[in-house]
Design a protein that fits this description.
By secondary structure, the chain is of the alpha/beta class. Helices cover 48% and strands 20% of the residues. Strand 6 (85-89), helix 4 and strand 7 form a beta-alpha-beta unit.
Length: 290
């Protein structure tokens, strides 16, 4: 039996029930791919839906009672919600379109000019552009060899996590990980073998930590992990799990762990402390956590 293809979901956030019916009717007239429309009647319900579910795209009304679609776009950016947004508005003048684009909207439609063909074209364009921009972001933020976050993105992430921890008073630890005697691998076996080892170690580190933790190719044979919502006990446990996960690969790693101190530390302080701990691990005999 051939099962029907699952429709991709689009969220409409609009406080006008009549407009929701018009959009739904337009969806039924699409000539290409069909979409399943979901409706949220206000700002709060729309933001909650975007946070809880995955949508292929979002159609966002400019006017949402006391708040605007631009306000919701700002929240989408702040919360790093990865959904392409098309703004709908009754306004055809002013700089609403420019403001929306600057905040991350991928297209802009005027309601009284709306047609099934125009709406379908806009959705297709936003979805395609979102995929293209996502690939560009991946290339800009990922290390090509290991697929991990690169150092530039890693710095951005740790600064963000420190600010989140500061405001929420949550715990945060950092692991700096260095492959022991890696230079000898490159010198004796060649750089291809070294690259294979780096990729294998990266995979082992990812498997040893949690999905919520950010793993970074920090540089050369060094990696970093931002361990979210974790104190020193959890951080050390995960550091030891990393050490154990790498041993079957025929190499070892040293790990320096530091716990963020809300009273005095910023991201740079935390990284300096983890780096000092890494040297302690090296000096104590390697293949361990300090």
């Amino acid at each position: 039996m051939i099962l029907p293809q699952q429709l991709r979901k689009v969220l409409l956030i609009d406080d006008d029930r009549g407009q929701a019916k018009i959009v739904d009717a337009s969806f039924g007239k699409f000539t290409g791919e069909k979409f399943e429309l979901h409706w949220a009647p206000n700002f709060d319900d729309g933001l909650l839906a975007l946070r809880r579910e995955h949508f292929t795209a979002c159609l966002l009304d400019y006017q949402l009672g006391p708040e605007s679609g631009l306000d919701l776009l700002r929240e989408v950016v702040r919360l790093e919600i990865d959904t392409p947004v098309v703004l709908l508005t009754s306004e055809s003048a002013g700089d609403v379109d420019t403001q929306a684009m600057n905040l991350g909207a991928l297209d802009y439609l005027v309601k009284h000019e709306l047609s099934p063909r125009g709406l379908e074209r806009s959705l297709r364009y936003a979805i395609k552009l979102h995929a293209t921009l996502g690939e560009l972001r991946r290339l800009a933020t990922r290390d090509m060899l290991t697929g991990l976050f690169n150092r530039r993105e890693g710095v951005r992430l740790i600064e963000r996590e420190v600010e989140r921890a500061r405001h929420s008073e949550r715990a945060l630890t950092v692991l700096l990980i260095d492959i022991d005697n890696f230079k000898g691998v490159n010198d004796s076996l060649g750089h291809d073998a070294g690259d294979r080892m780096l990729a294998a170690v990266a995979k082992a580190i990812q498997g040893a930590v949690r999905e919520v933790d950010s793993v970074v190719r920090w540089g050369g044979d060094e990696f970093a992990v931002w361990v979210m919502d974790s104190d020193a006990v959890t951080g050390r446990r995960l550091g030891e799990a990393v050490v154990a996960a790498v041993r079957p690969l025929g190499c070892t790693v040293s790990v320096g762990m530091a716990e963020w101190n809300n009273a005095r530390d910023d991201a740079a302080d935390l990284l300096v402390a983890a780096d000092r701990a890494l040297y302690e691990a090296k000096n104590a005999g390697r293949d361990r956590v300090a």
